[in-house]
Q: What sequence folds into this?
């Protein structure tokens, strides 16, 4: 797992902003459950440990209502333009780690 403190800071910023929008706290454990991980995993990510695959980052962005490019790389603005709803259906998700896993099995 790669360390990236900038990613961790963006994730925490997005989680806190989502809590403000919801008008109630957004605990790490709740975010973790929403994307299929533990609150400890969210804490690790906020400390700078990046998730193992880009699909997890896309799910985090969808759940937090931020742009995936901003969350993953710091590109673009945090939130989508006014009136644009961020919606990444799970059924259309791309498994960016599939190729990597196949290479490991073949090797």
A:
């Amino acid at each position: 797992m790669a360390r990236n403190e900038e990613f961790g800071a963006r994730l925490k910023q997005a989680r806190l902003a989502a809590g403000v929008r919801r008008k109630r706290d957004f605990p790490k454990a709740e975010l973790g459950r929403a994307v299929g991980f533990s609150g400890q995993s969210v804490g690790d990510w906020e400390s700078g440990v990046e998730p193992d695959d880009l699909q997890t980052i896309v799910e985090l962005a969808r759940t937090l209502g931020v742009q995936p490019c901003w969350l993953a790389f710091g590109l673009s603005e945090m939130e989508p333009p006014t009136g644009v709803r961020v919606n990444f259906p799970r059924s259309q998700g791309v498994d960016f780690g599939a190729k990597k896993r196949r290479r490991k099995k073949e090797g």
About this structure: The chain has six helices and no strands. Residues 5-106 form a domain with the 434 Repressor (Amino-terminal Domain) fold (CATH 1.10.260.40). Confidence is low (pLDDT under 50) at residues 86-104.
